[in-house]
Each structure stands twice: as C-alpha cells, then as structure tokens.
Amino acid sequence: MTKPNDHVTGVGGEYLVIEAASGDEERLRVNGVAYSGGKMSLPGWRHPVVVDLSGMEIPGNVPLLTNHENRTGSRIGMIAAKVEDNALLVEGEILSSSGQAKGIVEQARVGAEWQLSIGAEVKEAELVRMQRMVNGRMQTGPFYHVKKSVLREVSVVAVGADATTRMKLAARFNLYGGAIMDFEKWLEERGIDASALNEDEKAALRRAFEAGEEPPAKEPDDKDKKPDLKPQPALKAAASKDAAVQAVADARAEADNAIRAERERVAAIQEICAGEFPRIERDAIKGGWSVEDTSQKVLKAMRENRPQADVHLSVNRDRGRDFDAKTIEASLCLRAGIDDKAMVKAYGEQVVETAWHSRDISLQQLFVECARLEGKTVPRTFCNDTIRAGFSTVSLPGVLNNVANKKLLKAFEAQPVIAVKLCSEGELSDFKESERYRLTDVGDLEPVAPDGELKHGGLTEEKATNQLGTFGKIFSLTRQMIYNDDLGAFLKVPEGMGARAARKIDQLFFTRLLSNPNSLFSAGHKNYKEGADTALGADSLGEAVQMFLDQTDADGQPINVSPKFLVVPTALKMTARELLNSTFYFATGGADKRRIPTYNALSDEDLEVVASPYLSNANYAGASAKAWYLFGDPRIVDTFEIGYLKGQRTPKVEKGDADFDMLGVRFRVIFDLGVREQDYRGMTKFKGEA
pTM of the prediction? Predict the structure, then answer.
C-alpha cells in the first residue's frame, strides 16, 4: 500500500469488462492497473517495497489467481501484462466458472470494486536508506528496491498492497445473438430517459434488461393525452365498467410484479450471502435492503474478516544451504539478545530480515532445522535420535559455537576494565618470555665546531619483558538442557565467561602492580614515597605531581610527561574528587594551620580519578586502602603492557568432541594474555601511611 504522500500516476483501464464469446458463453475481460509503481507494505519485509518495473521480466502469458493462492481452483484466467507510464497494466480474460470466479463476477455486477496485486519472484533487492529515483518518481527511504524480478502471477484481491489498483464492472451485459448490449444504450433505444428515473424504476428496468425482457408499457402523462372535444354520453357507462375491470387487472398485475420483484430480491440476497453471512442475510430480507446495499455490507464484512497479513508479493528466493544456515544462526543470535546492528554487519541485511521472523526459535527446533538442512531424517517426535541427527551435522555445532562466541564477546565488551586505561597493548607471537626493547637517545645537540665537524651521538637499549599465559574453562550443552528446551541456560555460560575473561585482565594487572616486582616503585627510581605525610591530600598530591614531572631519561634529561590518572582505592575516591574538582578549599584550624588558599591549583592538572576495589582487596598481596598512584598516558609513556597472542584481543569459544557416554556437546573458552610492567618513569606511588 502506498503511503499518503506518494505521488501516483493516473492510468486508465482500471475496469473489469464483460464481453461475449462465441455462442452463448460469457467471458470476463480484465483490464486494470496491477501495480502503480509506488511503495507497498508487505509482511516479511521490515520496510516498504518498491518493485522496479524496468527490471521486471514479464512472460507472454501470466496466470490470473485469487488471493495469491497456488492452487488449481484459484486459477481463474490468463492475462497479458505490459509496462506503460511507469505502471504495470494487464489485460486478459476470466475463463474459469469456479465458485471463486463466479463470486468475483457476481459481486462486480452489483458495483463491488476489486483490486489487483502482483506476485513476483525477487532476483535482486537492495535496502535504500536515503532516496532513489525508481519508476519515474523519487522514492524516500528506507525502502527495499527490488531491482530485478520475474512476474509470476497477478491476483484479484479485496484489499491490495497497492491501494491505487482497481478492477470494477464498467458495463452491464445482455446477449442478443452474441452481441453486447449496454444498459444505458438499451434504455436509449427504447426512448427512456435514465436521468428521469427514480431508484425503484431504474432497478425494475435493470432486472428486465438482464432478463432479456422488454420494459413494461407506461401510460402517457396527462399532458401528453389529446383532449376529446366531442361528448359521448352513450359510452360513459361502458367506459366506466371497462375502467373498473382495468383497475382490478392493473392492481392484480402490480401485485404480481411486486411479489415477483420481492422473490427476485430475496433470491439475489441469498445468492450474495451464499450461506456465509446469515446475519446480514436475515437483516437484509427483513429490512428491505436493496441488492446493492446487501452487496456492500457483504464486501465490508469480507474485508474485516480478511487476515491482515495478506501476502501481496510472493518471494521465492532459493539462496542455497549456506544462506539458510546463516539465517538459522542469525535467528538464534537475535533470541540471545545480540544487537541487530552488529547482526547486519556480520550477516547482511537480507539474512537478518529473514531471521527476524523466526527469532523465537527453540533449542529443539534448532536441532530439527539443522538436521533437515543437511538432509538428515528426523523422527516426528523429538527424541534421542533427533539429538543424534542434529549433532551429526556440520551446521548445528557451528551455529552453537558462533552464537556462543557472539554472546561471550558481547559480555566481554560490556564489562568495564580499568587496566586497558592504564596499560599499553602489544602483540606476542608465542608463549616464550618476550623481551621488549626500547631505544633511548643519549646526548643533546651540541654546537658545531668552526671546522664543521659534528660529534657522534648514540642510542642505548632499555629492556622490559612480557609473557603470555593461557586461561580457559569448559562448558557443555547437555541432553537435559536439550530436552528442557533451555537455550537460555546454555547461553548464560558463555555470557558469564565473557565477563570473567574481561575481569581476568584487571586481576593480572593489579596482582602484578601490588606485588611491586623488581622494585618497580622505589626511592632509587624516584617514584615512591612513604610516611604519614603521604596520605592523600592537597600537599601530598602536589608533591606527587612534582615527583612525576621531575623524572629524567637515561642521559638525565627531563622526560617532560605529565601524569594523566590518579589511581586510588575506593575508600579514597570521594577525597580524590574533592581535591581535583573543588574551586577552592579552606585548611582546618588549630595548631597545624598553615595556609588557607582561595584557589585550587590541583583542579587545573587535568587528572582523571580511577578508583578500583582491587587495590584494597585482601586477596591480593600488597593491597592497601591508603596507598595511591599516579599514571601517565600509556600512549605517551610506557607503564604496563597487556600482551595478546598475535593480536587476538578477545577470548574465544571452541567446540570440542564430547565423550561417548555424554549425549551432548562440549565447548571451551580460552584467552591468551600476559601483563607485565615496562617503565617505572610512567608511574608514581605514595604509600599513604608510615
């Protein structure tokens, strides 16, 4: 159905015309607009559809069906189609005498309007998000542009997807020796002015026209009678007697006509209702409804009873087993809550569009569909043989593995990880300890001697290390889960493992940080201080910033890097924010009163507060609720490094073979990573206590 703001080009020929064939047979000529070239809202498509008529392949003869039903009884004729003025025009005949064809003809005779709808096989389609010129008009997105298609059939429908198509009875008919007689022409030949007739007179004449009878004789009006100027007294008595007899005869004839007309009206009403609308039939007969009124009531009831999901564009797209497998997998991902934008990026718009309508797929349905996809025979009822058939396929384990990976990745990315803020990332090629070298220049630029000789500088290597470890766990899809149809329980496992994998990065980082490996924080490195005056406060933070800024490189020159992060345990989070975000502060009174600044210089340091519960967690050696740190930006100065195996920065799910005694399948989650310190100059620690 086109939207109200769509421009529709008017095209003639939107009529259903009855003609005479050879002999006394009747044939229904069909002329109409099957598709006007605009948008159609169709079930199975998330956005409107526009069929490009320039890319439509039109066969020589096209079947005319009812309601797109692919049944023998639904084929009622044949048509020819052509594209003209950016619209699809059809012309043909209704050849069938079936009940469906008869119903269409009878309702058309009493003024019912029918619509046409196309059935096409889609060869190529594309989602248009902005706008595009199609069928001679600018179509605004989003809509699906069906670029290539094959016209398979045209159907007569009560309510079409394209509201501008129409098919109605344009001419009444009566057969006289094979000739067609129009009702208005029939009236004209008999000298009857149609505009001077009331509805009852017109209905009576129409019944005579359709029955092949002549119209009843009509007495001339008084103004048309010639006055009799000669008195005839002798004939008055006889005339009076004849008039009385004639009046009785006229009354009897009028009564007979009325009875005959009522019988015809009742018969016509019963024929229109056809036993399917008994209430309308009863009300029409009792209420004296006309045949036309009854037909309109029946049409309205038919439209209201028609299912809303009426298919007006049949789609036959055999994309192969790979497409079907992706559709099943995408359906499962949608049920698992994977974002549809990520799905479109992974599978494509058409796969996700098809999968959207089966997103409620169950675990048992998944087994059956995968088995059938690869030609495996499955029992009628779900049992162990169904499970074995599913697991014997390539599709099922692959689908489960891919969905579990996406669920794991979604949970992994949703988990906040502090270490990725404070550490750089690197790639390791194997599991051996890897040495990470950094070249440092020694010596500043010096004045050039008068003889032009330049002195040589040098480079020294500073070394750090990192080493990967493998972390993982096994989970299973068991027979009990399958029988319970518990897909949710299966998907919760990789979801939980994804969150655990993300937390593993922080666990490795804070374990290493708190253990202070290789005297990372020490007085010799000029990045550590302890004592009562190191508790987090304005003075101690100012001193820590100065200590960080005073760090020098290998030849004693300042590295000139400012701290970026203030890392504190959760107990100091509010204190840290107050120090950095207050506009000014007052010192407490008493004997230790030193100064009362009216401007907080720390607010200009552009430090970001990072609070972590790991710093004070008793499960980690070296944990403290009072110690705090300054970290530089890892993109500027080395701090810690998170190493990954060949750039694989996320955990992954792998399918494993199940044991013989287990009717199920096993999966394992593995994550290869290592965390090591790199350069002490990018970090400063204050103990916060003596």
Answer: 0.54
